[in-house]
Amino acid sequence: MFKVGLIGCGNMGEAIVKGLSRKIKSTDIIVSDINPERVEYMVEKYNVAGSSSNRRVVENSEIVILAVKPKDLEETVSPINDSFKGKVVVSVLAGISIPKLKNLMKDSFIVRAMPNTPALVGEGAIGVSFENDSPEIKEKIIDLLSSLGTVVEVDEKLMDVVTGLSGSGPAYVFMFIEGLIQGGIKGGLSYNQSRELAVQTVLGAAKMLKETGEHPSILRDKVSSPGGTTIYALHRLEEKGFKDAVISAVEEATKRSKELSK
User: Fold this and answer.
1) What local confidence, expressed as pLDDT, does residue 133 receive?
2) Starting at the edge strand that comes first in sequence, how are the strands of the sheet with 2-7 ordered?
3) 71 Cβ contact partners less than 8 Å away, ≥ 6 residues apart
4) Distance in angstroms between the alpha carbons of the first and the last residue of the chain
5) Helix, strand or coil for residue 4?
6) Under a CB-based contact definition with an 8 Å cutoff, are residues 223 and 230 in contact?
7) Who contacts 224 (Cβ-Cβ below 8 Å, separation ≥6)?
8) What is the mean pLDDT of the segment spanning 131-154?
């Protein structure tokens, strides 16, 4: 019996496997995917077990993680829905609600999770909701997912917001970093110089925010000297609607997540 079975070996599936390998033995993980080459890649790179059969993965695992595309959910689980009986099923599919998952896998215990791609380096942000309040299962799943990064339990009705904020969030941050790099290059720095400074700036700012526990506006004001460079830059960002654009991005991704659930 494997501790974890994974169905779906895309980018998120790979991030999950790499993260879980820090917590449990890779040989305790079995994976499957519609693409046999992807399974072979996962087996060779991460030393997990691989299978061409989704049913075998489910029947031989204590916990099953579903990481297929939302549009492929029914096609994936319907032919083998009897095999989910008594299993803990963790879905990372954007927009697919617990009731819909339960309808497809009636005799299983459903957990809905939304990790993000930084899970690949152990720094993911994972929102999680549970079908019910079983303390034993909650503890087990949260402990397991903590190998991917920070786990935050939320009400299931807020999972679409989690998707819009942290699920899609890395893309917003990467775009911001890209802008910092290009700004440095425009000013005369080399790409490598600009990249190193930009990445460390974002990393350091995030760590400072996390460790101090202060509100972002307080830390922002500490950087902003009267009449200095930062306040001029912040004024321009406000003129360009920077914060409003970020809020709108989260709202749009949340809206799309809700649309996927219909």
Assistant:
1) 78
2) 49-51, 29-32, 2-7, 61-66, 88-91, 109-114, 124-130, 149-153
3) none
4) 35
5) strand
6) yes
7) 230, 231, 234
8) 91
